Amino acid sequence: MYNPDDTICAISTPAGVGALAIVRLSGRNSKNISEKSFKGGKLEDKKATFGNIIDSNGIIIDDVVMIWYKAPGSYTAEDMVEVICHGGYTVSQQILELFCNAGARLAQPGEFTLRAFLNGKLDLTEAEAVNSIINAKTLMSKQLATFNLEGKLKNKLDMINSKLFELISVLEAEIDFSDEEIDKLNYNEIQDNLSDIQARIEELLSTYDIGRIAEGRAQIAIVGAPNVGKSSLFNALLRSERAIVTGIPGTTRDYLTEYVNIGGYPVIMTDTAGIRQSEQEIEIIGINKSRELISNVDLCIFILDASRPVNDEDREIAEYLNKYAHILVVNKADLMDKRGYKLNDNFSDRNPLYISALRRTGLDILVKEIQKRLTIDLIEPVEGALLSQRQYDCVQRTQKSVGNAITALAQNESEEVIISILREALDHVGELSGRITSEEILNNIFSKFCIGK
């Protein structure tokens, strides 16, 4: 863990040419360190002060605006200084070096927001929302993250936490004061309380897919036998020649991945190696990767070739895909009339879509079907959504614990057993909000931030 007593500094704006750049300091010596290099008006809390940054030889580096934030009224709840200087590659770097030479330490990724969390300015979901806003790929993902930064997810967690704590307190009171006349919860009342908590958890879990799709983390894979037109469809949906297209089977030995626009949202699309029996070691590796990928994506696009009859390779892939969500696509549909192409009963009940990737026909219908399968058309902003795998996993563990408590109640387990299980659920909620956490978890979360945030 980083030393919280250090004064840290970083450039908060992206590197490169621009009108302005911002250099930040946070820590008890922020004001003193910045004043060593500043020649201008007196710094006052939350007031912009114009002046010059000068080096150790008294040479002016730049005209700047400096703002001092007195603790605890800053982003980190510590004394903070922001220096607004001219953009470019050199000025902000010179200022940063001056501050480091004067006693500040270069901040680690996410360390400003980590301090805001440790100092009680943000809970962990709000801190994660900061990073989600910075990395938002769509207006929807930015809106979802903004709701979380405003505390909407925190409010939902607080309600679940409160209901768990209240139920635990009542059950413990019944044990501690069993000889006294106090109001006790009967079986149905306990069950109703647990069902209410479970319903809130399930509602929260349902928000994860919305956030995942809005953030561009939904995945589709194009699969099929070699040379059926997978790479051609990949290029057609991308509207660029990203994948190599040849008439030689097995051209794609590894998979290619790009973002494709589906209904206004970025979706991760992968062109996989053709699945067939092969004796070539490199191709076998690619085929095995394709099978592994299929099990992890949201949706597969399974391609058949209309220029030839369905063969054993197609049937083997179809059988493998039975347990996974997929759309059946018949490519090279412009050749069907000439070849007299027909689907047998094993495929006709899958509602195939007929396209020509080469001629770009039928793609609009395919894109609409992808939107439908990924429920993109149903996405609406949710106030308080799960936006990371970590958050989802915490809530899933909470759900499992509450489910175990419901089972224990049905099996007439003692109140002590039920209380113990509910405390596990309470801990999982605490892990999500940051009330209970570890150094390893914090390092993992904040290492994904940019340096100056």
Class by helix and strand content?
A: alpha/beta
Outline, from the CA principal axes?
Answer: flat
Quaternary class: single chain
What number of domains? 3
What is the CATH superfamily of the largest domain? P-loop containing nucleotide triphosphate hydrolases
The strand line-up of the biggest sheet is 3-4-5-6-2-1-7
- CATH names the topology of the largest domain as Rossmann fold
Q: Mean pLDDT score, rounded?
A: 87
CATH architecture of the largest domain: 3-Layer(aba) Sandwich
**Radius of gyration from the CA trace?**
29 Å
Query: If helices are DSSP runs of H or I spanning 4 or more residues, what is the number of helices?
Result: 17
* Strand tally: 13
Strand content: 15-25%
User: Could you state the order of secondary-structure elements as H and E?
Assistant: EEHEEEEHEHHHHHHEHEEHEHEHHEHHHH
Gap between N and C termini: 17 Å
Low-confidence stretches: 243-253
Question: Helix amount, in percent?
Answer: 40-55%
CATH class label of the largest domain: Alpha Beta
- Major sheet, described briefly? 7 strands, mixed
